Amino acid sequence: MQSIKFENVPDEFGLSVKVYPIVPSPGEVDINFDLVDCMADGPSVGVVEDSETKMDAIELEDNSRVTFPVNCKYQYMALNVKNLDKFVAITVTCKCTEGKIREVVLSNRRSNIAINGNSCQAPLLLGDGWQYLNVDIEKLLNNAFGVSLDCTLQITVTGSTRLGKLYLQESEYADAELPPFLRLIQ
Description:
This protein has a single domain, classed as Jelly Rolls (Sandwich), CATH 2.60.120. 5% of the residues lie in helices and 52% in strands. It has one helix at 137-145, and strands spanning 19-23, 39-41, 44-49, 56-72, 76-96, 101-107, 114-116, 119-123, 129-136, 149-169. Strands 1, 2, 3, 4, 5, 6, 7, 8, 9 and 10 form a ten-stranded mixed sheet that branches.
């Protein structure tokens, strides 16, 4: 897959938001999988048009995995994910201000929090259908390890799910503040 850097996304929309779009590519409404910087692994990873949203989504089935390399200091991870009532895990790999690599795994198979060395596993509670998640990575690292976020290195989605949008943001933004290609409501 072609590698694209998103560090200096042009602000063609005249907005003052600071986002690091991962899926879809900057300025794209539809997902062009060839332009998304990722590594796919497993029996089934592809792009489908979701019948409910009428928008493209990355679909993972049968415990497939897709990993997005990033290098971003933004504190919040925002994503639209569809609950297919099957296993799904979101792994965020970060470098903390102490220089250590830390990993936080949010999984719908967990019911408790477990911390082991530089890894934290926590429950991910999903409702029915499409979900908007806004995860404060800084807060997760602080609560789990007592450290601060230096930068997010990669995000991995594993299991059976659909991923509509994935981006990092400096602050929590309302949907209307986002560039059109990242809005939940088009």
